[in-house]
Design brief:
The protein contains twelve helices and nine strands. It is an alpha/beta fold. A six-stranded mixed beta sheet has the order 1-2-3-4-6-9, with helices on both faces. A three-stranded mixed beta sheet has the order 5-7-8. Helix 1 links the parallel strand 2 and strand 3.
């Protein structure tokens, strides 16, 4: 394992920091993908985690793929045929959207700088996005003569709508933080120095809630994007039956009636 990903846990909140600032946190090799996937699997097994923040070591959030690796055919781009390249994508970068999308813990992208190509898509893999005033977003694959290979064609329209996703994908033009806010790609823009504190404040507001219910709610939101309403209602009823029998539900009701802060134990 490399040190591409720094993992910091503070109580119920885990911060994942892409830590290769010399290459603007570009995802360049299978080991990078291994680390992200392994972190998601570890978090999924840890019932104490209630929210995850994904960010990058300054000055970038994630510059996407490694352009020098593309040029030199190194790392994930090391392939001598289309069949090998296809398999490299499947065994490499495509494991990241699957790992993050399937993670039941709520996630926040704290976008501190450039989120380009796969970096923008990485932000879209998260449930919530807040941006530094220095953030820049671009679905720039077309600019280097390739298509979104990491799920961007599925992720971006769900974040900004089909028309805006098409404009971004067909032009490759960047959005600054204010434009990203107007496009509803992010929910807020904050001064750069305040980004992580704002992300932690949001994470704390999420993490104060019952953890089992948080995970089930996220799963309903995920499944609801692909299910029919009757199917989602059936899943909701099943999850609700489970939620009603938890100790945290009883504590939440008591706390509400007694006008106090609930103490939730994930049971």
């Amino acid at each position: 394992m490399t040190d591409f990903l720094l993992i910091l846990q503070d109580g119920p909140i885990v911060t994942l920091t892409l830590n290769a600032p010399e290459r603007r946190n570009a995802i360049s090799g299978f080991a990078d993908c291994d680390e992200v996937e392994a972190a998601c699997k570890r978090i999924a097994r840890d019932d104490s985690v209630r929210c995850v923040i994904v960010t990058g070591a300054d000055p970038a959030f994630c510059a996407g793929g490694d352009l020098k690796g593309m040029r030199d055919r190194k790392g994930i781009m090391a392939a001598d045929s289309p069949a090998v390249m296809r398999e490299n994508y499947r065994r490499g970068i495509q494991r990241i959207p699957l790992a993050l999308w399937e993670l039941d813990v709520p996630t926040i992208a704290a976008v501190n700088g450039a989120a380009i190509g796969a970096g923008l898509d990485l932000a879209c893999m998260c449930d919530m996005r807040i941006a530094s005033e220095k953030a820049i977003f671009a679905e720039s694959f077309v600019r280097v003569g390739i298509v979104p290979g990491d799920g961007g064609a599925w992720l971006l329209p769900r974040a900004v709508g089909l028309a805006m996703a098409a404009e971004m994908s067909f032009t490759g033009d960047p959005l600054d933080a204010a434009q990203a806010l107007a496009a509803r790609l992010v929910s807020r823009v904050v001064p750069h120095a305040e980004l992580l504190s704002a992300a932690r404040e949001l994470a704390a507001r999420v993490a104060k809630n019952p953890p089992q219910v948080l995970r089930m709610t996220k799963r309903l939101l995920r499944e609801g994007q692909n299910m029919s309403l009757p199917s989602l209602l059936e899943l909701s009823a099943a999850f609700q039956a489970i939620a009603h029998e938890t100790e945290d539900h009883k504590e939440a009701v008591d706390a509400m009636l007694e006008k106090r802060v609930g103490v939730f134990k994930g049971r």
